[in-house]
Amino acid sequence: MSLRSKVITLYKNLLHLGKDWPTGYDFFRHRLHKAFTKNKDVNDPEEIKKLIKHGEFVQKEIEALYMLKKYRTLKRRYNIGNNSPQQIRKPYKA
């Protein structure tokens, strides 16, 4: 896979992740575009590979952030206060 196609794939993946960004898709898209255009004149293949690795790191961090957000939401939804579901259940009386 050429470096150009890797950069385009990374941009598309990050753009897709931006749909759930807390401050909005437009804000994320603008910042992403600005970050990529800042490095548009880089021609050294080693520097491009370094930037791609950094972009992949950012992508993994965003994915981890979303997973943590979902986990916290589920935890909040199913744990009332500090009580676990086992503590909430009342004993069964026949």
UniProtKB/TrEMBL annotation:
One GO-annotated biological process of the protein: respiratory electron transport chain
The source's superkingdom equals Eukaryota
Which InterPro entries has this protein been placed in?
A: Complex1_LYR_ETFRF1_LYRM5 (IPR045296), ETFRF1 (IPR052000)
> Which Pfam families does this UniProt record tie to the protein?
Complex1_LYR_2
Q: Name one GO cellular component term.
A: mitochondrion
Q: Its family? A: Belongs to the complex I LYR family.
Instruction: From the Swiss-Prot or TrEMBL record, give the protein name.
Output: Electron transfer flavoprotein regulatory factor 1 isoform X1
**From what organism does this protein derive?**
Agrilus planipennis
Name of the gene encoding the protein in the UniProt record: LOC108738047
